[in-house]
Amino acid sequence: MSQDIRRIVATDCGSTTTKAILIERNDSGEYRLVARGEAPTTVEKPFEDVTVGVLNSITEMEEITGESVPEGFPVGRRTLIKDDRVWRLQKNGSPTDTRSKPDEASDLYVSTSSAGGGLQMMVAGVVKSMSAESAERAALGAGAILMDTLAVDDGRKDFQKVQRLRQLRPDIILMSGGTDGGTKVHLVDMAEVIHRADPKPRFGDMQLPVIFAGNKEVREEVKEVLGESIAVKVVDNIRPTLEEENLDPARDEIHELFLEHVMQQAPGYNKLLDWTSEEVMATPNAVGKLMESYARQENINILGVDIGGATTDVFSVFEGIYNRTVSANLGMSYSICNVLKEAGTENIARWIPIKLDPFEVRNRLRNKMIRPTTIPQTYEDLLIEQAVSREALRLAFEHHKSLARSLKGTQQQRDVGQIFEQTSTGETLIKMMNLDMIIGSGGVLSHAPNRAQSALMMLDAYEPEGVTMITVDSIFMMPHLGVLSEHFYEAARQVFEYDCIVKCGHCIAPTGTVKPGETAVTVRGATINEAVPAGKIKVIPLGRGEFIDVTIEPHRNLDVGAGKGKSRSMKLEGGTVGVMIDARGRPFQLPQTDSERIEKLREWLQAMGLPMP
User: In angstroms, rounded to a whole number, what is the distance separating the alpha carbons of residues 444 and 559?
Assistant: First the structure.
């Protein structure tokens, strides 16, 4: 992408709200967020045109720039709309227009969308724990909501699979199975099930797309069995061999079909496509692209979460391998009672630092479910909501770890020293000791009254190990930056680091347990010398952009990343909270009795500088 780009407009057309951001290059040559606007999404009557919401959100941005802009940028209202359309100067990297004044138009306009509803998919495979699981990873990584997974060994009869396909009406079916040259019969049988079901897509009279990503030697037979009523798209095998997983071709095809079959159902989508400089991208896919690009460019491991009202998305990039999962039944408003059902009242109540009757906890959560748009009115309400969020985050993370795994069924070579180490295939890729950064997003994390509350929720839910940077997405602009990173990574990176994520600070968390009261870890540096006892949290004040060189010395039975009892020297960065030393032990256990538990929770709130209930 040309370095001549000075002004970028990006929009995210969500199911309820359209959000716009304006990015400009300042006098120092750095890209920064200048303004942000939002408006209701207009896909329903009376407008039925997604571009109306786009224009409304950008008009709000124009008005904001007329009132104030950050230091280092030209003062004055920007003119970003011309002839009732977004005014941009480039299309596919080529100039299409000119500006007569410096405050006119954007050089680049990009957009994401989920206004046509989320992409709903079903996966059909041969072996549930192998080819079907690889297909799940491909579908989820492409931004889909997974409705169900059919497999030869899933325990269901053929007629039950046919009923399920007819009942769910997915947008796309991804079919996989068999290594190249492997099984044929099972794939033909699965194709027969899909053909008999004759499933109809949610939208319109178009043919249902089936992506075949299985054994290349059975492609023609599968096409013949599926028949002409189904649109078959053939891509490279997801599991060409047992030792190899090839997800990108399937993900790319899912993305193309999503644009073609789902996004185009949003009224005005074709007009939006004509306005943008580059192709529109699905919102969850864009968030994943940003995390994947950032992790690979910076050579770090990332864990990200977006906790919403109905669903919780978890993203991870470990050793360059990207995974995404959607927990469609875990959320903070519409799905709050599903969290209650899955976690149980006791698990939620254990995080509340006051004595509450379990019936009252349940009733408060039921009230939230029938009035999903309400926000906490008292500090007590806020503590209960944040207790629920810990369990929603924990459960979604458990689901993510179960799917983000190495390949099952592969052969492993072991040398003599590994004879007695029976490591199995299919182990989770999520190694918390290797994690460099956690990014928390979604209303309960991004809009918490105090950043320390967001940090504590993530410490309690994820139990990071070793040394990890804790961050929060400030105003949820990751979809905008994700689509921008595809075309102009450097601008996306600068805005992501400076305006998007708010660094709470590094967290030091030794793994293992020692007796309460014993010194768990000592942190020494030029201006600090802190010995933190087991079971305690200690915050060292250190601001954003401030660094300190330290030596971390754990107890002989604890590990901070260098091995049990071994010290580790490194540079720590502060943030809105500071450097957090979490000596509560891993795995982390709460006291059993109510009085001890409440006392400990209050002690940890106080250690994080948070008010007492």
Answer: 32
User: How far is residue 296's CA from residue 489's CA, in Å, rounded to a whole number?
Assistant: 12
Q: Is the pLDDT of residue 164 over 80?
A: yes
To 5 degrees, how large is the angle CA 20–CA 309–CA 482? Answer: 35
> Which burial class, exposed, middle or buried, applies to 515 when counting CB atoms under 10 A from its CB (0-12, 13-18, 19+)?
exposed
Q: 292 lies in a domain?
A: no
Which strand (E) or helix (H) includes residue 82?
strand 81-82
Q: What is the CATH number of the domain that holds 174?
A: 3.40.50.280
Q: Number of folded domains in the chain? A: 3
Per-residue b or e along 64-80, where b marks 16 or more CB atoms closer than 10 Å to that residue's CB: bbeeebeeebeeeebbb
Distance CA 334, CA 340 (A): 12
How many whole angstroms separate alpha carbon 162 and alpha carbon 242? 29
**Which pLDDT score, from 0 to 100, does residue 3 have?**
61
Taking residue 526's Cβ as centre, other Cβ atoms within 10 Å add up to 8
Phi and psi dihedrals of 363, rounded to 5?
-65, -35
User: Are 460 and 319 members of one domain?
Assistant: yes
Q: Residue for token digits 């999520």?
A: 430
pLDDT digits (tens, 9 = 90+) for 349-395: 999 999 998 889 889 888 888 888 788 899 999 999 999 999 999 99
400-427 mean pLDDT: 55
**Are 250 and 213 a contacting pair, CB within 8 Å?**
yes
111 has pLDDT over 60: yes
Of 73, 88, 113, the position where a domain reaches its end is: 113
The verdict on 443 and 457 lying in the same domain is yes
CA 48, 51, 55, 56 dihedral sign is positive
Burial degree of 202 (CB within 10 A; 0-12, 13-18, 19+) = middle
Has residue 412 got a pLDDT over 70?
no
Which token pair is 470?
A: 């804790």
Q: What is d(CA 14, CA 17) in angstroms, rounded to the nearest whole number?
A: 5
Q: What is the pLDDT of residues 234-247, one digit of tens each?
A: 999 999 988 888 88
Same domain, 15 and 54: yes
The 10s digit of each residue's pLDDT in 65-92 is 998 888 888 889 999 999 999 999 888 7
- Residue 596 above 70 pLDDT? yes
CA nearest 393: which of 347, 362, 451? 347
End-to-end CA distance of the chain: 52
Q: What is the mean pLDDT of residues 402-426?
A: 51
Report the alpha-carbon distance of residue 103 to residue 237 in Å, rounded.
Answer: 50
Strands lying side by side in the sheet with 7-13? 31-40, 17-25, 7-13, 108-113, 281-282
In a domain, 312, yes or no: yes
Domain that holds residue 31: 7-113
- Could you give phi then psi for residue 319, rounded to 5 degrees? 55, 40
Domain match, 77 and 195 both:
no
